Amino acid sequence: MSAALLALGTATLYEASGLDCILPHRIRPAWPGAALAGTALTVSAPPGDNLALHLALEHAEPGDVLVVDGGGEPFGYWGEVLAEAALARGVTGLVIDGGVRDVERLRDLPFPAFSTWTAIRGTVKHATGPIGAPLPLGAVTVYRGDMIVADADGIVALPAAELARITAAAEARASAESEYLRRIRAGASTMDIYGFGRP
Questions:
Q1: CA separation (Å) from 21 to 75, 77, 81, 99, 142?
Q2: How many domains does the chain have?
Q3: Which residues pair with 117 in a beta bridge?
Q4: Residue 45 within a domain
Q5: Is 170 exposed, middle or buried (0-12, 13-18, 19+ CB in 10 A)?
Q6: Is the peptide bond before 110 cis (omega within 30 degrees of 0)?
Q7: Which domain holds residue 147?
Q8: Which residue, among 101, 112, 117, has the nearest Cα to 151 in the 3D structure?
Q9: Domain for residue 125, yes or no?
Q10: Any domain includes 10
Q11: pLDDT tens track of the chain, all 199 residues?
């Protein structure tokens, strides 16, 4: 399932979903080529404190993606050590509104990470927020078990109950676009393909 969703891509999944499911555009790949798909394990971390991320790994299951609200702060909440620990737990990747560091090591592992910042500033380990609770992130509330798909175009959070419908609609859209591309290569106009009226 994850590979199929990645092949469809976030833009197609978003358009097919009919939902407002885009996570904030400021959260970008930490290294070129990063991509992930997996079920959301939500984490809320106090600004500059990454204890919650360490604790979250004890709750994580194989195939999970940690979706973290770090308040958008430029701290290095995540780096090589946590990435290695996450891989040992079968965690698929990280999406954080906050910073990561050791990005070359994350790339080499490879461990897909999407973050607001690359930041080397250290964190404390004093407090934690909810783990697995509904997590507002931008205009979207992410729930435990939502399917998170992230690639170079963006990040979507797809409700688990809607996943079959969205996947089918995305596959139909991708098939239609393949036919559009065939016609374009044969000389057709996008105005005619889409049936746009000419002024």
A1: 26, 25, 31, 22, 9
A2: 1
A3: 99
A4: yes
A5: buried
A6: yes
A7: 20-162
A8: 112
A9: yes
A10: no
A11: 799 999 999 999 999 999 999 999 999 999 999 999 999 999 999 999 999 999 999 999 999 999 999 999 999 999 999 999 999 999 999 999 999 999 999 999 999 999 999 999 999 999 999 999 999 999 999 999 999 999 999 999 999 999 999 999 999 999 999 999 999 999 999 999 999 998 8
* Residue labelled with tokens 């992130």: 137
Q: Which residues contact 121 (CB under 8 A, 6 or more apart)?
A: 48, 74, 75, 76, 99
CATH number at residue 48: 3.50.30.40
The pTM is what? Answer: 0.96
Structure tokens of 29?
Answer: 């790949």
Has residue 79 been placed in a domain?
A: yes
First to last CA, the chain: 44
